[in-house]
Amino acid sequence: MLIGADSALWGLVVMSVCLAAAWVSSPLRQDRSLTHWDAQQRHVRDGFVVVYWRPGSWGCLRLRSALRSVSGQILWVNVWADDEAAAFVRDVNGGAEVVPTAILRNGDAVSHPTPEALRADLSARTA
């Protein structure tokens, strides 16, 4: 036998992990995301934190996963789906399309925010 049962099983595991990673990081994956202007209106009106992200960014994926427990308090805007969002991110980052970029309650823009920083901003909002 050229390929043993153990090799075939490991091949299946590796293939499954690769397919899952491709799905998670795919720009074709449909995700609920607001437009830049909708998010800005809700940010001003209701005090939401806004996070600009893009599919395929592992930094965005890690941030989103780490903030899953407070996801209802954060507005996510996909810069690949909204040209105005991409232009805004470039504007606040000196011309670079840096994601994730967050807009805190006080209006400050933060590039590569930590989950702890966003949680602190959210808890200050509810305090």
From TrEMBL:
Q: Which domain of life is it from?
A: Bacteria
Matching entries from InterPro entries are given as: Thioredoxin-like_sf (IPR036249)
Q: What is the recorded name of this protein?
A: Glutaredoxin domain-containing protein
Species the sequence originates in: Austwickia chelonae NBRC 105200
